[in-house]
Design goal:
75% helix; two-stranded antiparallel ribbon; 5 helices; globular; 5% strand; 158 residues
């Protein structure tokens, strides 16, 4: 039984690490979003989301490179390519988040929701961010795995 668990963990290490760092990335995103909403107000939720996105993506870029997908190259050309592709793919999910936030907050009027849990005010803006965050995480994983940090197959015939 223990050997099976260890085998499963080894097989799924990449996904487990992605999930672990993804949770930290999500915490960064939600914390910055929450802080920005407190500082600048909920009316600026799209700008606040962009600031949160930038902080979270910067953290995710380096943790995904070195810990999750183990892209060990420190060659400047490779690093620049990975960063450009990483941010480019994340810009697409930023657009999805921004549109999703707007639809949920304005279109479905979730801005009216508000309640308090342990002194934290949970607003419709924060709930909306959680909903669009789930979609973003899924898309981001697929982009990172299959495009940004994809392992190049080694052609032995060359």
């Amino acid at each position: 039984m223990i050997k099976r668990i260890i085998s499963l963990l080894k097989k799924n290490t990449e996904f487990i690490l992605y999930a672990f760092f993804g949770v930290i990335t999500a915490l960064i995103s939600f914390s910055v979003f929450y802080l920005c909403n407190m500082l600048f107000g909920n009316d600026f939720y799209l700008l606040n989301n962009t600031v949160a996105w930038f902080c979270a993506v910067t953290f995710a870029c380096f943790t995904n490179k070195f810990f999750v997908f183990k892209s060990e190259s420190l060659e400047p050309k490779v690093i620049i390519r990975e960063i450009v592709v990483f941010y480019s793919s994340r810009i697409m999910t930023l657009a999805i988040e921004e549109i999703g936030l707007w639809v949920l907050v304005e279109g479905l009027n979730m801005k009216q929701l508000c309640f308090v849990i342990f002194t934290f005010e949970i607003t419709g803006h924060l709930i909306s961010k959680g909903i669009v965050g789930i979609i973003s995480v899924t898309i981001n994983y697929l982009f990172s795995k299959f495009i940004t940090f994809a392992k190049k197959s080694k052609n032995t015939d060359s």
